[in-house]
Every structure is written in C-alpha cells, then in structure tokens.
Amino acid sequence: MLCANLKLIDVDNCLPEEERYQLSYPTMSHAQIEGLSQSVVCSMSKMKWRKSTEEFCSSVVDTLFHQAQISRHAVFLATGDSFKTISFSYRLGKSTVGAIVHDTSIAVIDLLLEEVMPVLNEEKWNAISEEFWTKWQFPNCIGSLDAKHVTIQAPNNSGSLYWNYKKTYYIVLLALVDPCYNFIAIDVGAYGKNSDGGILVNSNLGKQYA
Fold first, then answer.
1. What tens digit of pLDDT does each residue of 59-82 get?
2. 163 in the Ramachandran plot: left (φ > 0), alpha (ψ -120 to 50) or beta?
C-alpha cells in the first residue's frame, strides 16, 4: 500500500537548469525513466522496510529522488562515462555516483531479469532458430555469440588469470543474442585468458544445456 501511494516529485522542477538537459540525453524517454523509477522506488522501499520501520521512515525522503538516480544510472549505462566524469556533471561525490549505480543496478536486475532474459523452453529456442533462418538465412542457429574484453587493473594475488594475449589484463563480458539483437543470456566477469567457447561451456547457460 505504501508503495502504491508513494508519489514521485517532479524532478525537472527540482533540478537546476543545466541539469534538466542531462535527463534527456540517456537513451530512455522521460516516460520510460519515470515508469522504471516507480518500480525501483517500490523495490528499494521494500528492501528498506525489511530492515526496520524506523530506518524505512528515515529514508522515505530519499526514495523520492530515485527518479533522478535512474537518470544518473542511465547516463552511466548509455555513455560509459567514468564515475568521476558523472560526478563532475552532477556535482556529486564520486563514491555517491558509485553507490547510485550499484544500488540501482541491483534493483533494476531484480525487477527486469525475468522479463528481459527469461529462461527459454524448447518452443522458444525453436522460434529463435526459425527467425534466424527467416531474417538472416542461418539454418539451425539459436543465437549469436560474442565477447567484449574490458581492461582492468589486475586484482591482488590473481597471477596471470586475467592476462590476455593482447598483453594486458581483462575481464570478459560474453553475450548471446537473438536475430533481433535482444539478449538471450550473458556472462560477466570471466578471466581474460579464456576463450569465448570456454566461457560459454562453463557458464550457467552452457552447463544447463550441456
């Protein structure tokens, strides 16, 4: 009931003029951000409610600003800017931006994972295969697989686990997509030395269908 009655403030009227523009340049419309904000507010509010009534009440004011948090989170995802750059843009501390991205990412994943990347059954796999043939003329294809190597500073005591033939340290972001470029499954954080096929075999998806 509390979530249903919680109303978001009009962030546009609360932000300085130069920050209002920044709400528009992520790749989400204002309506999409507002709709997602409502869900995230409820999700985060329920998380706080589980802790204690006193803690929850003290954070109600903060939840009213989750729409602005979604905007900053969208900026991070859409632009790939560093926390430092975003902190300068919004006049926030670097650690504050990091906390916003971390907390909002968890809430968004909890809310949308089953909707965006549900576990597929045989019927859906067959539909993907048919669509690959219809759209791209690839027979018996159930997904397009590729990986992105992200440069990192090697963690302490990690040895050569993240070392890659490109002569630096990486983690791997692996994605399987359907013929319309929608994600079917992802694997995040594999060692830079591993091959795409090896990462897939050892991922939850690979183990499920092995």
1. 544 554 566 777 777 777 777 788
2. beta
